[in-house]
Amino acid sequence: MEILWWQILLLTIYAGYQILDDLQFNIFGHPVFAGIISGLIMGDITTGLIIGGGMQLTILGVGTFGGASRIDANSGTVLAVAFSVALGMNPQQALATLAVPVASLMIQTDILARFTNTFFAHRIDAKIEKMDYKGIERNFLYGAIPWALSRAIPVFLALVFGGGVVKNIVDYLNGDLKWLGDGLTVAGAVLPAVGFAILLRYLPLKKHYPYFIIGFIITALMVTLFDGLSGLGTAVSGLDDKFSMSFSSLPMLAIAAIGFAFAGLEYKRSSAPKSASTTSSNSQDGQNVDDEGEIDDDEL
């Protein structure tokens, strides 16, 4: 399958938009949305969800501090979905060989966008001294141009000129280097676990380990229960041709709802007003500190 010109155009526009969304609105600027949108454009939303969801889990514990740059998981997802669908590439293999490397390389274009954007920042400083409010607004909007181009141009060039290179690599991985291609496919499936490991490294797991244990056990029990019911239902349905009911496993939405319920309980517990004695005994310069020394009310 060849990537059509209108698909390249739409993917390029989305690549330029997604960084602006990530900076301003934070709605569609996530890998899972990049996978869905790219999958819709390429006509294979299943592959888009696999790659986008896998990339979302891979960067689950990755964040930025201050002005630090991070890997551009959205651009990596866009290219991985496009080439995976166009070349018939295994989604897990595309995640390991395209999404992650491209996302890492895009750090350089992110730095270039930040560097270029200082030009408009200095123009805004000059406009502030002149009290030119319209000029401030214009230069603020101009600052979006380097950000969008830093993603749109590399994605466009990769889609236009990179198809042949990627096809040769895929053919080589599935031919002479099949052992390496299979290994990269396994690595792509393991990458989401790496994201969870990074996230658990930063979460206060020691403080809230009971919730972690309960969530793990509930998930394991539900999966086992529903897998058994699904297998039993499938076997029973095979005995009667008129039995048309389908059985499916527990959806992730149900598991997410369980986690949301526990999160709500924890929020209500942590936001409950503390007694006067506890507040006075654990107060340091007007801030509440718990038993582990963590300041509770230092953010608003």
Strand order of the largest sheet: 1-2
Helicity range? over 70%
Measure the end-to-end span.
52 Å
Largest sheet: 2 strands, antiparallel
| Nearest-integer average pLDDT | 78
SSE order: HHHHHHHHHHHHEE
Q: How large is the share of residues in beta strands?
A: under 5%
> Given the helix and strand composition, which structural class is it?
mainly alpha
SS elements, strand count: 2
Helical stretch tally: 12
Poorly predicted runs of 5 or more residues = 276-280, 292-300
Radius of gyration: 24 Å
Overall shape: it is globular
Question: Can you put this structure into words, describing what you see?
Answer:
It is a single chain. The protein has 300 residues and is mostly helical. The chain is built from twelve helices and two strands, in the order ααααααααααααββ. Helix 1 runs antiparallel to helix 2 and helix 10 runs antiparallel to helix 11. The C terminus is likely disordered.
How would you summarize what this structure contains?
The chain has 300 residues and is an all-alpha fold. Helix content is 73%, strand content 1%. The chain has helices at residues 5-23, 31-42, 45-58, 73-87, 91-129, 133-142, 144-161, 163-173, 178-202, 209-237, 252-271, 276-281, and strands spanning 283-284, 287-288.
List the helices and strands and how they pair.
Elements: H1 5-23, H2 31-42, H3 45-58, H4 73-87, H5 91-129, H6 133-142, H7 144-161, H8 163-173, H9 178-202, H10 209-237, H11 252-271, H12 276-281, E1 283-284, E2 287-288
Antiparallel strand pairs: 1-2
Helix pairs in contact: 1-2, 1-7, 2-3, 2-4, 3-4, 3-5, 3-9, 4-5, 4-7, 5-6, 5-7, 5-9, 10-11
